[in-house]
Design a protein that fits this description.
heterodimer, A: 157 residues, Immunoglobulin-like, globular, B: 199 residues, alpha+beta, Glutaredoxin
């Protein structure tokens, strides 16, 4: 089992293009999971992705986990009266028949205590836990430090 | 339907419109008066002195004679700071050599973590025309006061983050405040705003 897991992780690392493909979990579809290369490990990393709920019931992303972070959390950048702040998000609502993006300047996964440097072109797994749909692990492709999107050639959402 | 995204975009653009209308009203009413507490001081009346990523001292007067674009941030945050720096790098690239004589400046609100060396290392990933400034906490407080900007340390369990003014300030070459670019602003509107201070 562990060998299978290791093989899976290795294949993720060598196939960053997978991040552009959708990963299905029941009526939930996750795609375009990406991150930015880190400068060392002292700053937190980030995770962005797109979630589509094709079902008829509301759901919510309640937590994220990844082996490359000691403390992964959901955060949201909000700008109120011209002041940017970054509060912890208890969950990201994923309403029925809706698409929700964790994207620059909004909701994002904040990866505190990185255990390794995130290098452009590599990939790492993130496990998403939804309140109703359960867990799914998706590959996250690492883009450049200044990237603003997943770098997928076409938006298949 | 990207319902939430649409809602957010709607709320943000409504907020931006209301803000800019308010700014227009303020400017038209007070254009001949000295700025009060709302908008940045003209650069020639600012009194900050900070240190750039090369270790050199930068004072407000150094910017006069060229248009200036200034924003506040810090290099530790994973989301909005690289996003803003990427946007600004894109604007500079679109402006090309026209932006060579624009003072483009990031003022760190996190002097504990952002030493000149850290700023230089971080900024090397973005357009090389962006200058990073840092200093002691009182020096940063003086700069924020000059720009009528605010920042605040937010402590969590074993880390902290910074809340800070998100807009990008534009000044004419003579130091007069010109405009603010909202951090979510469409580049189609941001670049023309910068062009106006470059003329």
């Amino acid at each position: 089992m562990n060998r299978l897991l290791a093989a899976t992780l290795l294949s993720l690392v060598s196939s960053p293009v997978l991040a552009c493909d959708a990963v299905q979990l029941g009526t939930i579809e996750v795609e375009q999971a990406w991150s930015r290369a880190s400068i060392g490990t002292s700053r937190p990393g980030v995770v962005y992705l797109t979630i589509r709920n094709a079902g008829t019931e509301d759901d919510a992303l309640v937590s994220i986990d990844t082996p490359i972070s000691g403390m992964p959390m959901l955060h949201e950048t909000v700008v109120t009266d011209g002041i940017a702040s970054m509060p912890h998000a208890m969950e990201v609502p994923v309403p029925a028949d809706a698409t929700v993006a964790l994207e620059p300047g909004g909701y994002h996964g904040m990866l505190m205590d990185l255990t390794q440097v995130l290098k452009e072109g590599e990939s790492f797994p993130v496990t998403l836990t939804f309140r109703n749909a359960g867990e799914v692990t998706v590959p996250v492709s690492v883009q450049g430090v200044g990237a603003t999107d997943a770098g997928c050639s076409e938006n298949n959402g | 339907m990207k319902r939430r995204t649409l809602l957010q975009a709607g709320a943000l653009s409504t907020g931006a419109v209301v803000f800019m209308l308010g700014l227009g009203w303020w400017q038209s009413r007070h254009s001949d008066e000295a700025p009060s507490g709302t908008l940045p001081l003209p650069i020639d009346r600012m009194s900050f002195a900070l240190t750039d990523q090369h270790g050199d001292t930068v004072e407000a007067a150094d910017w006069l004679g060229q248009p200036t674009m200034v924003f506040f941030g810090f290099t530790w945050c994973p989301d909005i700071c690289p996003t803003t720096l990427s946007a600004i790098s894109d604007w500079l690239e679109e402006l090309g050599p026209d932006a060579d004589h624009l003072n483009t400046v990031l003022i760190s609100v996190d002097p504990e973590r952002d030493t000149p060396e850290v700023l230089g290392d971080y900024l090397s990933n973005f357009d090389d025309r962006i200058t990073g400034l840092t200093g002691t906490l009182p020096q940063i407080e003086q700069a924020a006061a000059d720009f009528r900007a605010t920042f605040r340390k937010v402590q969590s369990e074993d880390n902290y983050t910074m809340d800070h003014t998100a807009g990008v300030f534009l000044f004419n070459a003579d130091g007069r405040f010109a405009n603010i670019i909202d951090h979510h602003e469409d580049p189609r509107y941001a670049v023309p705003k910068i062009r106006r201070v470059l003329e």
